UniProtKB/TrEMBL annotation:
It comes from Paenibacillus ginsengarvi. Keywords: Oxidoreductase. GO terms for molecular function: nucleotide binding; oxidoreductase activity. Signal peptide: none annotated. This is Gfo/Idh/MocA family oxidoreductase. The keyword Oxidoreductase applies. Residues 134-253 form the GFO/IDH/MocA-like oxidoreductase domain. Coiled coil: none annotated. Residues 6-124 form the Gfo/Idh/MocA-like oxidoreductase N-terminal domain. The keyword Oxidoreductase applies. It comes from the Bacteria. Belongs to the Gfo/Idh/MocA family.
């Protein structure tokens, strides 16, 4: 008989896990959090008690040895994603890995290969892609209502400059705006265009005060047919997270494209030949939707929503963006 619930273990007590992912799994239809681990056992126990998690472990290894766990969520610093994804796969656990998936495309390919070898499912935690508004936007694009797509513009910025000790300011740990949030507009363009970019050009501000990471980056990704994504991302700027899809006959605007309040309606706007309408989707928790979609792949054998090679392809684009920013040149994506 098919299991009705996917039993989750959380590897680490990161803020994204505590604030969003664990509550999202708890509110999902087909998931339950069974255990959480930290290298600080006291922290694991305190987090477990706060969030009503039955088990707490003082090591990641101990959690992976728990036979009551089907899948793990990995919100560790970026440079630890590869090691713990592979170790989880070797322990027979399915893996939902926080974005950015890895440090580079080579690591991503190793992670994908390891999970395939051990017969476990693997996905990157881009929660926004699971919200039905993106399916609706793709329907509008496919209908031809806004005409032929000419370009996409995305933004994701916030100001965390005062927190100079944050791991996001550590190059060796995969710090920087491109790794942390630039991946969102990049993945959105790939999703909406159903295509991979051919070249990247990125200009960035590398801050000596923040470990030399990119605190702001502005980029251009070239897709086929003359279509482009223009985007900016920042960890030292006023906050925005928006997306605009521009067509020959109209445009689609998302004022909260990636992060939105889980209990608020999702609103976006469609303008065609000067007539603007609002489309609204009832409140949904996109972290819960992500957990349920992953449960469907594990428990029901449903196909991956975004393709088994999606994480590697995404990292290939990010590699090009980082190389372009560092060398101040246009990088062709092979």
């Amino acid at each position: 008989m098919t299991k009705s619930k996917l039993r989750w273990g959380i590897i680490g007590c990161a803020g994204i896990a505590v604030r969003s992912v664990i509550p999202g799994i708890a509110q999902s239809e087909r998931g339950e959090v069974t255990a959480i681990a930290s290298r600080d056992e006291t922290k694991a126990k305190e987090t477990a008690e706060k969030l009503g998690i039955p088990k707490a472990y003082g090591s990641y290894e101990a959690l992976l040895a728990d036979g009551d766990i089907d899948a793990v969520y990995i919100p560790l610093p970026n440079n630890m994603h590869k090691e713990w994804t592979i170790r989880a796969a070797e322990a027979g656990k399915h893996v939902l890995c926080e974005k950015p998936f890895s440090m580079d495309a080579a690591e991503a390919a190793e992670m994908v290969e390891a999970c395939a070898k051990h017969g476990v499912k693997l996905a990157e935690a881009f929660m926004y892609r699971h919200h039905p508004r993106y399916k609706r936007i793709k329907e509008i694009i496919a209908s031809g209502e806004i005409g032929t797509i000419r370009g996409i513009h995305g933004t994701f910025t916030f100001n965390n400059s005062a927190n100079t000790t944050n791991f996001r300011n550590n190059q060796a740990m995969g710090g920087g705006a491109l790794y942390d949030i630039g991946v969102y507009p990049i993945s959105a363009a790939r999703l909406l265009l159903d295509a991979e970019p051919e070249a990247a050009t990125v200009h960035a501000f590398f801050s000596p005060e923040h470990g030399g990471v990119d605190m702001m980056a502005s980029g251009l990704l070239e897709f086929g047919g003359g279509v482009a994504l223009t985007f900016d991302c920042a960890m030292w700027a006023a906050g925005r997270n928006t997306l605009e899809v521009l067509g020959t006959e109209g445009r689609i605007e998302l004022p909260s494209a990636f992060v939105s309040a889980p209990n608020a309606p999702s609103v976006f706007y469609v303008t065609v030949k000067g007539n603007r309408r609002e489309e609204t989707i009832d409140p949904l928790n996109q972290y819960s939707l992500q957990a349920d979609d992953f449960a469907a792949t594990v428990l029901d054998g449903a196909p991956s929503l975004f393709g088994e090679d999606d994480p590697t392809l995404g990292m290939r684009v990010l590699d090009a963006c980082l190389e372009s920013a560092r060398t101040r040149s246009r990088i062709v994506i092979s």
